[in-house]
Amino acid sequence: MHPLKTFNESYWTEEFVVTDDDLEFLNNLFLEEETPLRTPELIQHLINRHIDNEVRMIKKYSAQGTIYRPAQSFKVGQELVFPVFGFEKGTVVSERPGINPDYSAFKVLEVEFDGGRRRELASELKVDHKLNVDTLADIEKLRPDVKKIYNRYKRVLTPIVVDALKQNEDMLFIAKRWFLKSLLLEVDQGFLNLSEAILDMNNGGPLPTKQIADEIGFGQNANPILQTVSLDYGLSKDDRFDEVGPAGQVLWFLRSMEPKEILEPPAVLRYNPIVFDQRFIQGEMLQWQKSIDDEFTDLELFEDEDDELEDEVTITLNYPHWRMGTLPLTWKVEHLFPTAHRAPRIKIILVDAQHDNAEIDGWVVREYGFVYGLGNFYQEHKLPVGAQITVRHEEEGGRLFIDFEAHKPRSEWVKVAHVENNRLRFEERQQLIGALYDQLMVLGVQDIASIDAAADHHRKHNFDLTTIMTDLIRELSVFSPQGHVHCVTLYSAVNMIRRCPPGPIFARLETHPNFVHAGGPYWRLA
Asked: Which of 179, 252, 315, 341 is least enclosed by beta carbons within 10 angstroms?
């Protein structure tokens, strides 16, 4: 055991707490340095403080009594101080010879502490022992290394320190730094208006805080970190500004210039959850359910999937995402896109791999499960519903490429949707397609506006899922000599007028008397 408690693992893993004096120390630290600090920096300041306190206590008690060291000899009745026991005092009440063939002659002291507790401790032990520190100078030499302690115990210390900091109402955590609100630079209405003007001149953003601060002349004589943290806090309190940077990067955007689709998802992407029993979907139907790229499918279904995350992922585009120019953040693709600690929306740049690596403004909206900004990409490349889209992350430069397997456009027979009396109808037509697509998901669209109107009609009148499925199976079954419909094709058609993941649709097929299993993934009406 080390002569300093703060060198021992048990102190940091079992005894360490943040006291009121520690918090006062941090407050004074902010006052003196006038610099916001990261959590690791604050923890290391506290580690150093706790070590300082213990060394100070050793110096204090050294002047008040004899420090126990195993190499020294002591007398019965002598009062000793034990740093390793929290500077507790004890009195030697007896002494006897020690017996251990591994050591030369030594003695065993019986020491009585407060409350009558007794312990046996060695004396005159002539071995190399960490407690045999003869001088205060030697204690300073044995002083623990702050960085080593932090690196070893940071997983234990971090939540303790963060929880204590959160109890201080004046403590602020922003841009991954802590500071006192009362010490921030004032961001008045004039600076906020200037910030809005700067962002407006830059197409809404995104811009880093430092650039905004410099352009509006904010906090020019202040510490640069204090300058940016103060402005970050000021902007975060004003609804005109949105923080849109990925983790580790603070970027600002004008909320008024953000696409309305990322602030509130359009109706075509919104799913009103339908209660269903997953246990009814088994075997081949379960595999088809898992094969569909739908962000609303329960992640628990994929617990047994390969955990290896790929740098290139291909997903099949359903109608809602094709219609809104979005990409679903499914379990197999979401890891490719950046995350944020607090920002609900992240501004990103995507790269069109089919068009000279042209840049595309995109938005990651994890709250609603999609990436926005691909409408022009889908239209320019004439991609159909059911197209297979590839997302590729390149390590060098960290760029995200959006791609598809292109080929010379050729005429394909496709089920094309149109609307009659607010109901979907289909007819097979030849359409030119120049991209790889899923034959079960592919659908053509005659008139988007009429489908939008039909979908609005269904939402307004709250059409039951069974009614929609029955109507669509009747309509689609005419294209099969056997009069049946593949479950994936049904899913694709349902989503033209009602957003729904495959689970509720497949469960309804398995349980409702309107539907009869025709073998494998095929179904017909009863």
From this structure: 341
